[in-house]
Amino acid sequence: MKIDWEQHRREVHNLGQVQDFLKQIVYGGNDGIVTTFAIVAGFAGAQAEGTAQIGAIAVLVFGLANLFADAVSMGLGEFLSTRSQKDIYLSQRKFVYHELETNPAHEQAELVQMMTERGMEQKAAHEVADKLIKCPELVADLMMSYELEMHDMRQVSPALDGLVTFLAFVLFGSAPLVPYFLMDATDTTFLLSVVATFGALVALGLMRWWSTREGLLRCVGETVLVGTACALVAFIVGALVG
User: Fold this and answer.
1) For residue 52, what are the domain limits?
2) CA distance 34 to 233
3) What is the pTM of this model?
4) Rg for the chain (alpha carbons), in Å?
5) What pLDDT band is residue 4 in, cutting at 50, 70 and 90?
């Protein structure tokens, strides 16, 4: 029976699109929330000292400008970073193929060592290596994973990773600004922004929990704690500058 690996991943291992892009969603989402709330908290901190009367329009102008500028920067940064990783992976895989063609005995010896280091008996390791060396694609997979400890990047799309990072940044990062779209900049508006920010951090933590199935309190708690620490720093700096 031939296994459909994509279906196997989805149905047996419960891996889908969200899990595939979880790194980009959490990275972009958390940074978007914290970065945008830093603008709001910085203004609120300065205003709390009575040195600046900042309206909702001003908060939105600075907040939106910062939101989209940083979102583009994050998206392009993710694109370049992923593309660089992929280039390194493909370059090293090409080198492994070259070694298999020009010096197969050395590569076979490396296979034997990898297997014996993981508990296989010497004789059995030699027998397995004799068969594996005839399958360069499989050997290349083993070398890239166990010798170079590099994740397979062949199916990764740098452009898609960058787009997901950008969208997560904008989607989650807009939460702190929502109250300022609806009302004037007052203490109540700032408190509502705090609530919206907290809600966005909790939602991001819940997404982590749903994707990883790790501890609920750990996933949500870590996300909220990191965001809260950054928000407090922004508010304190705004107050000190004021």
Assistant:
1) 22-241
2) 10
3) 0.78
4) 25
5) low
